[in-house]
Structure prediction request, 535 residues.
Amino acid sequence: MDGNEFSLTIGNLLETAADNSPNQIISYKGKENYTYRKFYERVNSLARALVELGVRKGDRIGFIDWDTNRFMEAYYAVPMSGATLHTVNIRYTPELIFYTMQHAEDKVVFVRDEFLPILERAAEAFDFVEKWVIYSESGKFKTILPNSYNYDDLINGKHNAQLPPADENDVATTFYTSGTTGLPKGVSFTQRQLILHTLGAAASLSNQPVNLGSTDVMMPLVPMFHVHSWGVPYIALMKGMKYVLPGKYDVLEILKTIKSQGVTVSLMVPTILYMLVSHPEARNYLEGANLRVVIGGSALPRGLAEKARQLGIQTTTGYGMSETCPILTISTFTSEVQKLPEAEQFDYRLKAGVPIGMVNLKVVDKTGKSVPKDGKTIGEIIAKAPWLTNGYVKDEENTKKLWKDGWMHTGDLGTLDQRGYLSVVDREKDAVKSGGEFIPTLIIEDAISTCKGVREVAVIGKAHPKWGERPVAYVSSEPDLKGSDINKHLEMLVESGKIAKFWIPDEYIFVKEFAKTSTGKIDKKVLREMLSSSQ
Prediction:
């Protein structure tokens, strides 16, 4: 028996999923359904078509689309062809889309027809792209892009090309960070890393309270261009679950799909959860759904978690970043936490969680020494795991900073409690440094979120002549809420010992809505620019 035949590859994951659950469904918005077996056949056809187009090992293949079944097919077909899938961030500006595609050196690019105008306006600049593959749900499109092919013609054609021998060390994916500071940085991952991440994440997500199983219906609301949609397109098939793809995000359509498809598990950033639970028709679609949601990308505010719980949504939190594939921790219950009262368990749901299998995680001070596990002492989060990116694409300087002393330095600040649960309290660059002390903005944001009338909140630092910096809170709220109302709420939390009085913001600035990053997080860079221009 050839051991390489059963190596840690995307193709082997798909083959075993199709063998074990051949009749399970992958559904696009509940309107276009494939069995795992049919999906396997389509993926193989697409992979062979790529080889016949001249794609060779190591080529980068760009993909520009919403969260569709076609994008899902590329998740598997591109690595199986030996190439590297570049998931292009469609929420970038056109200039950044061009920059990342050029930086990645995309040779073939798949593009949904509605994105053609963005590319056609600068068609000559994309001279590094040798072939374009276009998909249209109507089946009809026109384009001025040269060397263009129809996606459906490719996948439905007869292809005799042989796929290259699978190698688990081939680079399978590349994508770019959200670019909140400077130009986006590229990261990449091998097939082996993706499979190991899938194994570790699937095992941890099987624990309480997520309790992920083959009878669940999964619809992630994490863009497929972003960090492998948190690995769910691989995890779900390994688990043999029904998988629902939402297409372009529309809150009402998502709510309808949750109900019509019986979705039981989803993953999303807090902003998406807020949009769902705040929709006027949320109760009609979410009550009784028994939906479990894993939150990542940024901290889950207690107020939002409580609002979700009122609709029957059980939330759990995870932590990771683009460079970590992404999952490092999930707030699943250890045997000790499982025995706690429900109210205390709810507190643990809001923590970033415990490291999943094969993750070595530390919180360290500036000398690299681990801080006490007291839930109070703040340090930088550093990690090791077999699926962390080896470095930034074409960027040795930032790669060295990322992997200082053999550990990945996240740039995030956190604490560990006596049970080993991580709490992320800030990004190192976001922390407010006041009077020589860190004021953890995520904790203040969490406290403000529990004030009645608050919708969303973000805290940043403002220069102060005495203290160096003082916190300022930007708040989206109900019309009648005032800063004094929030102050009174925070003062009660001070009296109960939950926050320090020194942490209460000096100023509240009310906004109608927040600018968001390409991955749905509140863009604090924009807030800092607003604050700077007002001074």
Observations:
- The longest helix spans residues 36-52.
- Residues 250-427 form a domain with the Rossmann fold fold (CATH 3.40.50.12780).
- The chain has three domains: 3-21+33-188, 250-427, 432-534.
